[in-house]
């Protein structure tokens, strides 16, 4: 990380999500979802469902980290292990950052932390889908070692507009130094 990115994130902490973060995480999730640009959801699920998701992630030992500034969640990254036993070596990555905190190196900090935890937890493969028009995220994922695996045509339809997604994956045993 360069000095500029480091100074921009000096007041931000990266930490494992905890029950105390749920309300603030829900708020951040809702703000990013309502941008209708980055997430599959167009608004956060109701708070009880978000609470159930987070507590389930914690109970299952799935890596989920939040970035906090003044005790408020400003970004997150998580990897959900696949449900089927034959696919349990795989996980799906999701992440988001509030707009005021983007382009400061926070995404890289979150994903590096979450990927380290995933590898320690026995994941062999981490997958994600990213909208093809999200060049900043695609560049970050490629820097982190994710490779493009295909295109999901018309993956989403937002406000009547279809958006293709790029399927990407990182295989820990093929990962170079990132």
Automatic annotation (TrEMBL):
Q: Indicate whether Cell inner membrane appears among the record's keywords.
A: no
PANTHER family given in the database record: L-AMINO ACID N-ACETYLTRANSFERASE, PUTATIVE-RELATED
Q: Which keywords label this protein?
A: Transferase
Write down the CDD domains for this protein, in alphabetical order.
Answer: NAT_SF (cd04301)
Span of domain N-acetyltransferase? 12-173
Does the keyword Acetylation belong to this entry?
no
Q: Name one GO molecular function term.
A: acyltransferase activity, transferring groups other than amino-acyl groups
Q: Supply the Gene3D superfamilies for this chain.
A: 3.40.630.30
A Pfam family that the UniProt record links to this protein: Acetyltransf_1
Full protein name: GNAT family N-acetyltransferase
Residues spanning the signal sequence: none
